[in-house]
Specification:
single chain; mainly alpha; Methane Monooxygenase Hydroxylase, Chain G, domain 1; two-stranded parallel ribbon; 3% strand; FH2_Formin_sf; Formin-like_plant; FH2_Formin
């Protein structure tokens, strides 16, 4: 009886310490944060690759699918404000989705850039579609 109580208290202390070390700050809605994290893993890109492509305006480096996914990740004004106010000196670290969005938001007009890059990436196919539609009308 004494051994099992002692073991449980040690285990409880370990869990508590582990939770403190692994504690993440969630700025986004937990469901949105989870969806963004899943999407980032599925797209298999790094923060550096995305930021570099955004700074260079290189739509080809990211691809249409990734650009469309990035548009869906856009934070609300409130979430954007909270992410920009978050300081790295905090004892808590950001979750993967929040850290990704914070890095992207450090780029001026990041989501406007993404929108423009998506427009550029889709431009040729949109023009072709319109040409076929006009041919059908004629």
């Amino acid at each position: 009886m004494v051994n099992s109580t002692n073991a449980n208290s040690k285990d409880g202390v370990r869990r508590h310490i582990f939770q403190e070390l692994n504690q993440e700050t969630l700025v986004l809605d937990p469901k949105k944060s989870q969806n963004i994290s899943i999407l980032l893993r599925a797209l298999n890109v790094t923060v550096d690759e995305v930021c570099e492509a955004l700074l260079e305006g290189n739509a080809d480096a990211l691809g249409t699918e990734l650009l469309e996914s990035l548009i869906k990740m856009a934070p609300t004004k409130e979430e954007e404000r909270k992410l920009k106010e978050f300081k790295d000196e905090s004892p808590f670290k950001l979750g993967s989705a929040e850290a990704f969005l914070k890095a992207v938001l450090d780029i001026p007009f990041a989501f406007k850039r993404i929108d423009a890059m998506l427009y550029i990436a889709n431009f040729d196919s949109d023009v072709e579609h319109l040409k076929r539609s006009f041919d059908t009308l004629e």
